Please model this.
Amino acid sequence: QVQLVESGGGLVQPGGSLRLSCAASVITLDYYAIGWFRQAPGKEREGVSCISRSGGSTYYTDSVKGRFTISRDNAKNTVYLQMNSLKPEDTAVYYCAAPVNEACSKGDYWGKGTLVTVSS
Model:
């Protein structure tokens, strides 16, 4: 059974940083494009960032460009999302998914999510 486990969420003040991790078991992540998604209370889930199999191609939704960075360490079977200059509107449950489509809008397997709260 494929398992994706997110970690690294928490409470952070505006302007702060967090690094989310997505670790996989059963599947080998370097075979797949991986994505980070988020869902805020009362809102639909949105694709935040995705990375290609090789890591050579990345996607970011407009609201996080210049602040978030996605990366992957295939040797550790882990994908990361470095989040800097966090804003209250980044508050959401963040999920990783694999594999994801080219539009970074859908995924096949999902983790259970990690909560990120940006508040003073």
Remarks:
- The chain has a mean pLDDT of 94.
- The radius of gyration is 13 Å.
- The longest strand covers residues 92-100.
